Each structure stands twice: as structure tokens, then as C-alpha cells.
């Protein structure tokens, strides 16, 4: 199958005050059409830089080398239309003075060329799909009237409003409590499966990655140190850093992580 996205020798550095700080070094990675790929690693490992590079959202001070190709698309990707992005902080990604339903409808209207009435219907449909109670009432709500988990569901609805080929979730669960994290992971798994979207899931939590992903890529200090099918990474990690991540999880959880314990679709 033709990959959706191919990264070849991708490197990124950030420049500030004449100095250069490397963030990614020579990454070769394919994102397969329809797959769920998790990228895990500690803070500063380069995983979020990878996400914004794929999305074309690198800041002005960043210097990119290498290639990002999109053989799975017939055109250059358009943010919002071909790539949906869910950020860590839903509060920062939502307009505080606009009802959340209108914000979702704006995405559908802009990228699917829908009239306002149909865009509003699309927004209500999505509010139901992300399991928010009373989609009509939620449509009229403002972000400050919603909980953190509800706002993240709204952000997911907005990210998939234009039926993108790739959904990027950059630490989208890290600001939520454990129960809500599990609910959001289950929701992302369900939505990507239903719509046939590829997923790039960025996380520091190998347990969440194992619940969600088909493959796991492990990053450390800007380099990809290991990649493989989820069961292989969890059961037979080859890199010492991956082994450390798994050991840390086992120490907290008091039992081995089982890749078969995925959230059901």
C-alpha cells in the first residue's frame, strides 16, 4: 500500500539569537494510510517537533532539512482539510467568545464548501459522535462552560470536521485525569477506525500508546531509536531506552503491560 506520508532524512533545528538548537536528526519514517502510529518519548525528545513539521506548522525560527512527501495525496496537504490537529491544551485552541458549535461549523464551511445550515448540521452530528450530551445545547455553549474533557472532545470534532486523511494528536490527553484520558483514547480509536483516518499520536505515555497504536516509534534526543508493531515493541523492546520506559510503567502499574488490552472499537 502506498504510504500516506514519507519522511526522509528529516532534520529540524530552532534558531534564536544567532544560536541553533537541533530538535530532530535524520528521521526516516512512513505514516501508512489508515494506520495508527504512536510516537513516544520524554520531553525534549523531538516528538512534538515531528508533529508540527508533518502538519506544516513549524515556527518561523525553525530550519528544516530533508523531505516530507505525500504519495497518498494527489496534492500538497492543506491544514484543516487534509490534516486535522488536536493540541495538548483545548482551551488555547478554542475561541473563548464564539459558541463551540459555530467553531466546528466554520471548519466544515471553509473546507467542505458547505452553506451555513449544512455546516451547522455537520457540527451537531460531530458533537454527537464525540459523545457530548445534548448536541443542540452544546452547540450553543461557550468554551468556559465546558469541562476540560468536554473541550477536548470539541477540539477533536473540529479537527475531523473536514474529513482529513491524517489526524495528529499532540499530547492531547496529558492535561486530563486518568479516567478522561482513557475515554479520549477510546474515542480517538473509534473515530479513526470509522473514518479510515491515519493517526499520528504523540505521547510520553507508552501505556496509552499501546492501547491505541498499530505501531510505536520511540524517540530520544531528536532521534528515532526504535520502531515496530505495538506487540513487538511492548513484548520484545530492542533498545535500552524503550526497556526503561516499559520498566517505569510496570513499576507504577505493578503488572506487565499487555498489548492485547486495547480499548475496544
Report what the structure shows.
It is a single chain. With 265 residues, the chain is of the alpha/beta class. It has one domain: 3-Layer(aba) Sandwich (Rossmann fold). Helices cover 38% and strands 25% of the residues. It has helices spanning 47-54, 90-93, 100-112, 116-129, 135-140, 148-159, 178-195, 206-212, 230-235, 240-253; strands at residues 5-16, 19-31, 36-40, 62-69, 83-86, 166-170, 198-203, 215-220, 223-229. The strands form 2 sheets. A 6-stranded mixed beta sheet has the order 5-6-7-3-8-9, sandwiched between helices. Helix 3 (100-112) runs parallel beside helix 6. The two termini are 23 Å apart.
Summarize the structure.
The protein has ten helices and nine strands.
Amino acid at each position: 500500500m502506498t504510504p500516506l506520508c514519507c519522511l526522509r532524512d528529516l532534520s529540524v533545528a530552532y534558531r534564536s539569537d544567532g544560536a541553533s538548537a537541533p530538535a530532530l536528526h535524520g528521521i526516516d519514517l512512513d505514516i501508512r494510510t489508515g494506520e495508527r502510529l504512536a510516537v513516544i518519548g520524554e520531553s525534549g525528545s523531538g516528538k512534538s517537533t515531528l508533529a508540527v513539521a508533518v502538519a506544516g506548522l513549524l515556527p518561523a525560527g525553525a530550519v528544516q532539512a530533508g523531505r516530507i512527501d505525500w504519495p497518498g495525496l494527489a496534492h500538497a496537504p492543506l491544514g484543516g482539510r487534509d490534516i486535522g490537529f488536536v493540541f495538548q491544551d483545548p482551551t488555547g485552541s478554542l475561541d473563548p467568545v464564539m459558541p463551540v458549535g459555530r467553531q466546528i461549523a466554520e471548519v466544515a464551511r471553509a473546507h467542505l464548501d458547505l452553506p451555513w445550515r449544512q455546516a451547522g448540521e455537520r457540527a451537531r452530528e460531530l458533537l454527537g459522535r464525540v459523545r457530548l450530551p445534548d448536541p443542540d445545547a452544546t452547540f450553543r455553549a461557550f468554551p468556559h462552560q465546558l469541562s476540560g474533557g468536554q473541550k477536548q472532545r470539541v477540539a477533536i470534532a473540529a479537527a475531523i470536521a473536514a474529513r482529513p486523511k491524517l489526524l495528529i494528536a499532540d499530547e492531547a490527553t496529558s492535561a486530563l485525569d486518568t479516567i478522561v484520558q482513557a475515554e479520549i483514547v477510546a474515542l480517538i480509536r473509534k473515530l479513526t477506525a470509522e473514518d479510515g483516518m491515519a493517526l499520528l499520536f504523540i505521547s510520553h505515555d507508552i501505556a496509552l500508546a499501546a492501547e491505541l497504536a498499530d505501531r510505536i516509534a520511540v524517540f530520544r534526543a531528536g532521534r528515532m531509536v526504535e520502531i515496530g508493531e505495538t506487540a513487538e515493541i511492548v513484548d520484545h523492546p530492542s533498545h535500552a531506552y524503550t526497556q526503561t520506559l516499559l520498566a517505569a510503567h510496570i513499576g507504577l502499574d505493578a503488572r506487565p503491560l499487555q498489548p492485547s488490552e486495547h480499548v475496544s472499537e
